[in-house]
Every structure is written in structure tokens, then in C-alpha cells.
Design goal:
It contains two helices and two strands, in the order ββαα. It is mainly alpha-helical.
């Protein structure tokens, strides 16, 4: 079994984050614990924590708004 070991970055869908945002806060005793903590952190980061670069929306809220904007735009184009 091989493991991917990122160097200095944590992969979060759509975003690369500095390793220190997560890994400097935790010491992992085993792989299962690491997977659980990283999954919880990713959920918090993407669904609970607002980001100033996204006008203080969470990434999940921002993505939903962008999807709705795209749908509205396409519907408007079809109706013209």
C-alpha cells in the first residue's frame, strides 16, 4: 500500500492550503485518527467557516450561489 505524502500543502477540493493550517494543530496517533480529524477539518473549512475572499460566505454557500447564478443566466439566455 502506498500513501501520498503532500509536502507543505493539504489538498482540499478546489483549493491548496498551507500545511500549517491543519497539520501544526494536531499530532496523529494512527491513520484512522488522521483521516477523521482531516475530514472534520475539511467539513468545518468548507461548510462552517466564512472566508473574506468569498465576501464572508462559506465555500459551500459560494458554490451554491455560483451554480444558481449560472442556472439563472442560462435560463435568461434561452428565453431571449
Amino acid at each position: 500500500m502506498s500513501f501520498y505524502r503532500p509536502i507543505g500543502l493539504v489538498l482540499v477540493p478546489g483549493c491548496l492550503l498551507p500545511r500549517s493550517l491543519l497539520l501544526n494543530e494536531h499530532w496523529f496517533r494512527n491513520l484512522h485518527q488522521a483521516q477523521k480529524i482531516i475530514a472534520d477539518w475539511r467539513t468545518d473549512f468548507n461548510e462552517q467557516r466564512p472566508h473574506s475572499s468569498l465576501d464572508y460566505l462559506t465555500p459551500a454557500e459560494f458554490a451554491l450561489n455560483q451554480r444558481q447564478y449560472t442556472i439563472d443566466f442560462l435560463e435568461h439566455q434561452v428565453n431571449e
